[in-house]
From TrEMBL:
The keyword Plastid does not apply. GO terms for biological process: translation. GO terms for cellular component: ribonucleoprotein complex; ribosome. Keywords: Ribonucleoprotein, Ribosomal protein. GO terms for molecular function: RNA binding; structural constituent of ribosome. This is Small ribosomal subunit protein uS7 domain-containing protein.
């Protein structure tokens, strides 16, 4: 029922196997609940996705013979999608046994502020800040 969780399930889904993606998320939430001793792991999930969501994206445009990177604001759904994809990619590179454990550990790290996903967001915001002069292009 939560639009953020359904977006997460749809992003995680491969080859139309939605029930499998839902089971992966459910198992991940169980692992996250054990890890944090929290009664509601979905609040941790939404908090982690919100904190990993970038505000801007950089689009490339040609300005004469040069390529200019223009910072462009993202809508809320686009922001969440970027954060979800980054978290899934970072979870896939982790060392735990199953993907459910990897995903839960990555969500936990994002909520604690020690994930590479947050570094990626910070790097993107720094680039956007450096290229803010191109915003009027």
């Amino acid at each position: 029922k939560d639009p953020l969780v359904s977006q997460l399930v749809n992003t995680l889904m491969r080859d139309g196997k939605k029930a499998r993606a839902q089971r992966v998320i459910l198992d991940s939430m169980k692992h996250l609940q054990k890890k944090t001793d929290s009664t509601n792991p979905y609040s941790i999930l939404t908090e982690a996705i919100e904190s990993a969501s970038p505000l801007l994206k950089l689009t490339s445009t040609k300005k004469g013979s040069k390529v200019a990177h223009v910072p462009t604001p993202l809508r809320e759904r686009q922001r969440h999608r970027r954060a979800i994809v980054w978290i899934i990619d970072a979870a896939a590179k982790r060392g735990e046994k199953t993907f459910e454990e990897k995903f839960a550990a990555e969500i936990y790290d994002v909520s604690q502020g020690v994930s590479a996903v947050l570094q990626k967001k910070l790097q993107l915001h720094k680039q956007a800040l450096a290229n803010r002069a191109n915003a009027q292009v």
